[in-house]
């Protein structure tokens, strides 16, 4: 049996939930390996866990950038992770006609930040009945996200998450304003902090997005300290060999140490 969503309602008050996995589905082996490892870690630490991987990457800098291994193939792999490990799964959708397709395999539909104002996309995601995770646009204030939330709720779906992933600062940096977390929690929903995409350095002249993964722990600790409900972390056994966004990902072998420290920090802040 899959855990009942929303998962955050099953967490102990001193815990946060985790969305984590590779940027994209690269192969069945990589997806299952990462999911199994994180499932073991989060079980030991008592952290509710949602496996994350994009079945297709639609927002790429260059035409020759990796976009996926094929929609149906990738979605079947996500479905296998879900059924074999008994864990919920989240993936991105980019157009209204993708909502029902992805919903057959996953539990949470994620709306990319650049698309968070797309009305038809939000309505289509809402109408699947799945949990909808909306990433805050890099160009929007936290307060402005209430309208994206309303589009989902007014379409008959109350299960909404918001994810903070930084605000554009110049051309090649993002800044996390931690005031955004309580501001968006005021909409009476859980807020997630994307610790990896918040550290992206987009628009590089090479056409390959950079990042600052050494600061993932810094961003995560700050989020936990201000009371974020969940964390989003992309991770890979060898980020240098990842087919998508390797410059932003946390090495998988560093995840348990970080999560253990974050659990202790949450417990201290809740004391």
The largest sheet, given as strand count, sense and whether it forms a barrel, is: 8 strands, parallel, barrel
- What is the helical fraction, as a range of percent? 25-40%
Named CATH topology: TIM Barrel
* Total number of beta strands: 13
Task: Output the CATH homologous superfamily.
Answer: Aldolase class I
Distance between the amino and carboxyl termini:
33 Å
In percent terms, what proportion of residues is strand?
A: 15-25%
Top-tier CATH class: Alpha Beta
- How many domains, in number, for the residues? 1
Oligomer: single chain
Gyration radius over CA: 17 Å
Number of helices: 8
Q: Can you give the mean pLDDT?
A: 90
User: Structural class from helices and strands?
Assistant: alpha/beta
| Shape, per Cα inertia axes | globular
Would you identify the CATH architecture?
Alpha-Beta Barrel
Strand order of the largest sheet: 1-2-3-4-5-6-9-12
Order of helices and strands: EHEHEHEHEHEEEHEEEHEEH
Low-confidence stretches: 1-5
Write up this protein:
The protein is of the alpha/beta class and 271 residues long. The chain has a single domain (15-270), classed as Aldolase class I (TIM Barrel, Alpha-Beta Barrel), CATH 3.20.20.70. Helix content is 32%, strand content 18%. The chain has helices at residues 28-45, 71-85, 99-103, 119-127, 146-153, 180-185, 216-225, 255-270, and strands spanning 17-21, 49-52, 89-92, 108-111, 131-135, 160-164, 167-168, 174-175, 191-194, 200-201, 210-211, 230-236, 250-251. The strands form 3 sheets. Strands 1-2-3-4-5-6-9-12 form an 8-stranded parallel β-barrel, surrounded by 5 helices. A two-stranded antiparallel sheet has the order 7-8. It has a two-stranded antiparallel sheet with strand order 10-11. The protein is globular and about 45 Å long. The model is unreliable at 1-5 (pLDDT under 50).
